[in-house]
Every structure is written in structure tokens, then in C-alpha cells.
Specification:
The complex is a heterodimer of chains A (135) and B (158).
Chain A: E1 12-18, H1 23-31, H2 41-46, H3 56-71, E2 77-84, E3 93-104, E4 107-115, E5 121-131
Antiparallel strand pairs in A: 1-3, 2-5, 3-4, 4-5
Chain B: E1 11-18, H1 21-31, H2 54-58, H3 72-76, H4 78-84, E2 96-105, E3 114-127, E4 130-140, E5 146-157
Antiparallel strand pairs in B: 1-3, 2-5, 3-4, 4-5
Classes of the chains: A alpha+beta (135), B alpha+beta (158).
Amino acid sequence: MKRLQDFTVGDTFGLVREVDPYRPIYYAAASGDFNPIHIDPELGRAAGYHGVILQGMCTYSWMAEACVAYLGDPTRLSHVRARFTKPVQVGDVITFEGRCAGIEGGVIRLEVTARNQRGEEILKGATAEGRAGEG
Amino acid sequence: MPIDRKHLGRRYGPYRFPVGLQQIRDFVAAVGGGVPGHVFSAPPDRTHPWTWDEEAAQRSPHGGLVAPPTFATAFAIEPFANACSDPELAVNVLRLVHGEQEFEFLEPVRPGDLLETTGEVTRIQERGNLDFLEVTTTTRNQHGRIVVKGVWTAIVRN
């Protein structure tokens, strides 16, 4: 496993995830978030979308997943924050690009962008922090 | 109608959540491109092995499976969800979106943990035609240690 000295400011990492038609339902089953806006396309349309929208927390979990893969251990992630700026819909392909923005006092600071296939930002101000030992 | 600021400080919970191995694996499958459950289920296409593969997790420094950090969504969302659907706050959920999310992770979550989450309305703010409703949650495990703190923000179009 990577030690603190193996992380370098400027390191990059990434993840691409596609929203298949069942993803909002699978995520609802696993997270307990059965808000009908994620299940019922008619309701989604009534709310002004093309159909159902994916739970924001699924997208957020993808961002965290990308950070965890970079940090090397799920328990190293100590802080995550993001604003949801655009709904994510079935068929969207989301590209996460992360960068190590700083390392100070054993804390690794990460910045992540998330864009859909049209290049629109779906998260803003997405940042994370991780802790790693010197080993 | 804007949310009445008198609800600032309104509390929700405690909500108890016994963590099961299958719940963690279902969450990992759902997030990781797989299919949760027992029937027609499918593994994640990729994920951290210590959140999925029990054998790999046994050999890890943690000695067993750990939940991915954002599994917190499954056990800590209740105060936020219940605030959003609280008749006293009268939020139109069709006009509501999850606007912002912050987590601070302090302790790993493992199968068998018994978690308890409480929450409090910490911000009600009107900005133009938008209402911001913020709920701050704290989750402790059976040892009394704080596992995760969350700040959940909903935005309601008026």
C-alpha cells in the first residue's frame, strides 16, 4: 500500500461511469433512497426533467470511489465535499478527473471535477482529504 | 412559501442502524456498476477489494471488510430526509434538490456495527427564489465514538 511519501502534489487520477437505465433503482435499493423522482419517469418529467434523475449521492459516491482508489485504502478518506450543479440522467456518462492539490501534515488534499458527455460540470467545488501514514 | 426560520435547531433522531455485511455489499454493487441483491445480482465491475472481497479484506490491515466511506448515505440520511418531508417544514419535495454534501469520516464502519444518528436543522436561508435547508448529522457507533459527521443541504425552488 502507498505510504505518505508515495503521494506527490500534481498526481492525477480519474474514473468514468455511465448511468445505465436501472442504476437509479439499484442505488435506491442499496441506499434506501426511494424518492419517486429517481424511480418514476412521469414524476421526473413533472418536475421538469427528461425522466428519472440519478440520486446525487450516487454521483458523489463515484467521486469518493475515485479518491479512495487513489488513496489506496477506503479508511484513509477523511473529508469530502461537493455541490451538485446539474441533474444526472439515464444515459449520461460522467468523467471524474482528480488531482492531488496539496500535502501538509500528513493530510493529502484532492480536487476533483465531474463532467457529463456534453462537458457540463455536474459537481462544483468537489474536494476531498485523505490521511496516510509514513510507513 | 419560504421555510419558516423558527424551525432552526429542530432535531431529528436518534435513528438506529445495525450494519449488515449484505447491506455493505449491496451498496458497493449498486455504486460499482453491479446489481445488488440475491436474484439476478452481479458484482461491481471495479471497486476497492476491502469493501467487497471478504478474503482480501481478511488479509488487509483492517482484518475484515470495511464499508466504503459514502455508505454513510445509507445510515445517516434519515434526519435530512425526515426534515425534507416534515409536514411542519412544508417543503415541496418535487421542487427540492440535494444542493451540497459534506462528510467528515472519523472511524471505519464494519459489518455488525450498531450506529445511531441524530440531526439538527442548522441553516434556513432564503436567497432570491431559492430556499436553503441545511441539516447537520452526527453518527456514533456502539463504542460511543463518532463515525461520521454530515452536512446535508437541500435547495428548494419557490
